[in-house]
Every structure is written in C-alpha cells, then in structure tokens.
Design a protein that fits this description.
By secondary structure, the chain is mainly α. The protein contains eight helices and no strands. It has two domains: 97 residues, RNA polymerase sigma factor, region 2, helix turn helix motif (Rna Polymerase Sigma Factor, Chain: A, Orthogonal Bundle); 72 residues, Arc Repressor Mutant, subunit A (Orthogonal Bundle), CATH 1.10.10.10.
C-alpha cells in the first residue's frame, strides 16, 4: 500500500530545508520509488541508482509541488523521466560492452536461487519487451496492486485508457511468456 501524500505543512518544511521533514518524506516514499524503478526500469537499469536520482530531484524540487494531493503523480512523473534517462544510458553501455553486476540476495539455497534468478530474468525480459505505456500500467496494476483509478491519476490518463493498456499488456505478456515456455506459478502449484 502506498503511503499518504505529505501534508502541505510537511512539504513547506521540507522545501525550507527541514532535514527531519525531508527524511520523513524520503522514508515513506523511497520504497515505492525503488519498486517503480525495479519493475519499470528494465533489465539493464540499476534500480537503486535510478531511485537515488529520483530522490535527488525530489530534494531539489520540494518547492515545485504545488498540490500535496498530486504528490504521488508528480513523483511518478519524475521517476518516469529518470528511468528514461537510465534506459538510454543502459542502451549505450550495452553497445560499449559493459555489463551491470548481478546482485544476489544472500539466501542459502543455491538451486532455488538459480531458479528464482532465471525466472526473474525471464519476467524482466518480457516486461522490457512491452511498449513502455503498457509496461507502466501492468507494473502499477498487477505488481504494485494499485487500483485503476489510482493508476489513472498517477499517469494522468483517462480510466478507460488504463483499462485498455492493461488488457493489451496482459495479453502481450502472456503471449511472450508462452513463447518462452513459461508456465504461470499457479499452474506449477505455487501458492
């Protein structure tokens, strides 16, 4: 569940340089931004780096937020722009031959780690193949578990557009997954 937008007073204090107010907003919203970056960035974007860049923009632009209730949409817009830049850099790195390091989570079962990392890589690969607008809606609705009206507000598009993009994204994702012989986790008996 997403945190509540900051109050006008919290934003005013953060814009005036109050470190406590800034930290409170960062603590509440960094996990959300990190999830957006991890799920929308694609396989060659380092989510932590992108989220860091989003937080830097937020730190510099607290005073640009005129309506606190629009804060989630504003922050998502910043995240989209930052991710676009990171994907552009990743494209150049791909041609330059530089690989991003593989990040491990430190679990103790290497076989399970391998299965999980292969599946995660497949899912990231499929997400990366979706058109950006479809990928955004799929991630926000199905992975972030946000409601369609919430997604409509975040993206600044009509509710019908969200529904249409989500339908297309799900169909495209399923077709790509089946082409890779991936079976949904439910069909594999995973709870």
């Amino acid at each position: 569940m997403a945190p509540q937008p900051p109050t006008p007073e919290e934003l005013r204090r953060a814009a005036s340089g109050d470190v406590r107010a800034q930290n409170a907003i960062f603590d509440a919203w960094l996990p959300v931004v990190l999830r957006w970056c991890a799920r929308l960035g694609g396989p060659r974007v380092a989510a932590e780096d992108a989220a860091h860049d989003v937080m830097i923009v937020l730190l510099r632009r607290f005073d640009a937020i005129e309506k606190p209730e629009r804060f989630p949409s504003w922050l998502f817009g910043v995240t989209r722009r930052v991710l676009r830049k990171h994907r552009g850099r990743a494209w150049i790195l791909r041609w330059a031959g530089s690989e991003l390091p593989d990040v491990r989570d430190g679990r103790q079962d290497p076989e399970r780690d391998l299965e999980d990392s292969e599946l995660a890589a497949s899912v990231r690969s499929i997400l990366a193949e979706l058109p950006e607008r479809q990928r955004e809606v799929l991630v926000l609705c199905d992975l972030e578990e946000r409601t369609a009206p919430e997604v409509s507000q975040l993206l600044g598009v009509p509710l019908g557009t969200v529904a249409s993009r989500l339908r297309l994204a799900r169909a495209r994702f399923e077709a790509l997954a089946r082409a890779r012989s991936l079976v949904p986790a439910i069909a594999q008996g995973v709870p």
